[in-house]
Design goal:
The protein is α/β, with parallel strands linked by helices. The longest helix has 16 residues, at 306-321. The strands form 6 sheets. The chain has a 6-stranded parallel β-sheet with strand order 10-9-8-11-12-13, with helices on both faces. The protein has a 6-stranded parallel β-sheet with strand order 19-18-17-20-21-22, sandwiched between helices. Among the domains are: 2-149, Medium-chain alcohol dehydrogenases, catalytic domain (Quinone Oxidoreductase, Chain A, domain 1, Alpha-Beta Complex); 153-303, Rossmann fold, CATH 3.40.50.720; 441-566, NAD(P)-binding Rossmann-like Domain (Rossmann fold). 33% of the residues lie in helices and 18% in strands. The chain starts with 7 loop residues before the first helix and ends in a 5-residue tail after the last strand. The chain binds NADPH dihydro-nicotinamide-adenine-dinucleotide phosphate.
Length: 635
């Protein structure tokens, strides 16, 4: 779904006019707020309220992005040792653009990019007023994600590598939770400072890829928890034993780490992700003279002098601007979808894979899908080369632009033989169709799938994939005029049978060559859903996606043999490994290259004509449905 970006100039002029005419009182801020401590998914609410008039020391900031950190979640739960007055706006970090300043503000101007440097100031809102003292101007060319996530994890990593064992040539650091946002900062700062580092991660199906990624960031060694137990790297003198250990996990994991430390080494604990205590054997104190410390960034910030703070932020900003320190792997989530971001951060099961989920990102560039050629890569990028053709494998990254900068994890290299329309529409409809056919039950050649909205992009992909895999499809379309043309188009694509809703309602038996459908794909609900349930084989599966997201209890009761499931591509994305994504995209690309899956009918359009594209785009099935593709190659 597309949404319109706010133009910065437009917003500024609206704000300025508002300021002049009505003294800011009409300016509204969208924000999250909680009135009680508890489960973030229950206590955090969305509200819109007016922005108070700007005080003489205040700065009006339009937020660009704010991350969700474990500490934010713990603060909302009331489990974090900071004082919060309720009601409170969550969010400790964030970046924005200055829109206006109070009369006595100096050193900050409208248009400056600023970060919020003090915790608990409430960054999860689109427009905010902050006291000038808690803001810091950062360079315009500092990345939004880097800026939004600068004050917690990079600073923690920096301090832990500075304040304990002095960094020197030959120092070896070991850390767990190495894939976390903080861990990735440790790796990169170590690389920039020439510090060897050993990184412990949890094992997972795509461990090779994770190791490769962390090595690209600068990891000297990446070991799973199991590998650490049996590793020979110290015995074989491949690397010295570490003299500094950074622990954010606790439990057995930290115990295993400290077994490998040098005499007189230090272990710094800064998190407790496993929720298990840190156990230290008595011998570690007596015979190895190990020392154990805690580190809390908030406490450091409270007592540190301004010069040390400035030095740290300057060093970090420089590393970021030199591309030596990247922001965490993240997923941009629209502000309205904040529950997704919270749910992601709360998930303690499995592997998150995606850290520091960033919240509001307005103005945002619309466009979820797209294809392009790589022009330039950053120095850490190792999976893609200039000149290669790539599609975006993650959504919400903004494709309606001529040039975009994306993380290598969010792009997938495709064959240059993949036609452009197919490539530009690869990552939503074909992926949705692919997953729905594969993930709910084993559909074999000769089986039948029934679907409604068969003429939609997703419906057309279902037809073509089923045809390629020898599966029959029964396709229901609306009772519109022009039906014959649609029917012929779908039959040409490989549909086994096409019916209007009325015709389908008359159906009771199937033609003998066709088995009753075992899988129904429902994105419309209502009569369309009823007819599919009527025709569905006993013990079949019905999948709800698109507009049909509510699964009616009564129907579930009446068809108690059937399995009712939901599908949302974003949910799949959030938990799929990159290997699974690659397998799917490669399968689809192969079918597209040999012409077995074609893009839906589309009309190329110049980007400047976007209004026409927006006006004419409809989200449900219709015979006049035209898919617009912004064609950046048009002269
Ligand atoms: P992330 O969510 O980005 O990363 C968490 C890391 O912990 C991931 O690598 C994850 O591994 C790993 N992990 C989670 N559960 C377990 C487990 N049961 N066993 C082993 N590993 C596990 O978090 P951050 O990097 O932002 O923060 C990490 C911790 O540090 C948090 O507790 C946070 O509160 C704390 N922190 C403390 C600061 C301070 O000042 N003291 C400052 C910053 C952070 P996987 O990738 O496999 O999911």
């Amino acid at each position: 779904m597309a949404f319109l970006p706010y133009s910065r100039n437009l917003l500024s002029s609206i704000l300025n006019t508002a300021n002049r005419k009505i003294g800011m009182r009409n300016l509204m801020s969208k924000q999250l707020v909680y009135n009680e401590f508890g489960d973030p998914l229950h206590v955090v609410k969305f509200r819109e309220c007016s922005v108070p008039p700007l005080g003489s020391q205040d700065v009006l900031v339009r937020m660009l992005a704010a991350p969700v950190n474990p500490a934010d979640i713990n603060t909302i739960q009331g489990k974090y040792p900071v004082k919060v007055n309720l009601p409170s706006i969550p969010g400790n970090e964030g970046v924005g653009i200055v829109e206006d300043i109070g009369k006595e503000v100096k050193g900050v101007c409208p248009g400056n990019k600023v970060i919020v440097t003090k915790p608990v100031q409430g960054t999860w809102r689109d427009i905010a007023t902050f006291n000038k003292d808690i803001l810091r101007v950062v360079p315009d060319n500092l990345g939004v994600v880097e800026a939004a996530t600068l004050t917690v994890n990079p600073c923690t990593a920096y301090r832990m590598l500075t304040d304990f064992k002095p960094v020197k040539e030959g120092l070896v650091v070991i850390q767990n939770g190495a894939n976390g946002a903080c861990g990735q900062n440790v790796i990169q700062i170590c690389k920039a400072w020439g510090v060897k580092n050993i990184n412990i991660v949890r094992n997972r199906p795509d461990i090779c890829e994770l190791k490769k990624y962390l090595e690209c960031l600068g990891a000297t060694y990446v070991l799973t928890e199991e590998e650490l137990r049996t590793t020979n790297i110290f015995k074989e003198k491949k690397i010295e034993k570490p003299s500094l250990a950074l622990n954010c996990v606790g439990g057995k994991n930290s115990l295993e780490m400290l077994r490998h430390l040098q005499h007189s080494a230090q272990m710094v604990t800064y998190g407790g992700m496993s929720r298990e205590p840190v156990n230290i054997p008595t011998s570690a104190f007596i015979f190895k003279n190990l020392s154990f410390h805690g580190f809390w960034m908030t406490a450091w910030s409270e007592k540190a002098n301004q010069a040390d703070k400035d030095q740290m932020i300057n060093d970090i900003v420089n590393l970021m601007c030199e591309n030596k320190l990247k922001g965490p792997v993240h997923k941009m989530v629209k502000f309205d979808h904040y529950e997704e971001a919270l749910g992601n951060a709360l998930s303690s099961k499995g592997f998150t894979g995606c850290k520091g989920v960033a919240l509001p990102c307005l103005p945002a560039i619309p466009g979820d899908e797209g294809v392009g050629d790589v022009v330039e890569i950053g120095s850490h990028v190792c999976t893609v080369k200039p000149g290669e053709r790539v599609v975006l494998s993650s959504r919400l990254l903004g494709t309606w632009r001529y040039y975009g900068i994306y993380h290598e994890r969010d792009i997938h290299v495709v064959s240059p033989n993949l036609p452009l329309p197919e490539a530009s529409m690869l990552s939503i409809a074909p992926c949705t169709a692919y997953r729905m056919i594969k993930d709910f039950l084993e559909v074999k050649p000769g089986d039948t799938v029934i679907q409604n909205a068969a003429n939609s992009p997703c419906g057309q992909c279902v037809i073509q994939l089923c045809k390629a895999w020898g599966i029959n499809t029964v396709n229901i379309v609306a009772n519109h005029c022009g039906y014959e043309a649609v029917k012929n188009r779908l039959l040409d694509l490989g549909a086994t049978a096409v019916y209007t809703l009325d015709e389908a309602e008359e159906l009771t038996v199937f033609n003998t060559s066709l088995n009753r459908p075992i899988l129904a794909l429902n994105c419309l609900g209502g009569r369309y859903e009823d007819i599919m349930l009527k025709l569905l084989e006993r013990d079949g599966v019905i999948v709800y996606y698109g507009c049909a997201f509510a699964m009616p209890l009564v129907k579930q009761f009446l068809r108690c043999d059937a399995t009712f499931c939901r599908f949302h591509l974003n949910d799949w994305d959030a938990q799929a490994s990159s290997v699974e994504k690659d397998v799917m995209l490669n399968d689809l690309v192969q079918l597209m290259v040999i012409g077995k899956v074609k893009a839906p009918v589309y009309e190329p359009m110049e980007l400047k004509n976007y209004v026409q594209a927006l006006r004419n785009t409809v989200h449900c099935e219709a015979f006049s449905n035209v898919n617009y593709v912004f064609d950046f190659t048009l002269p």
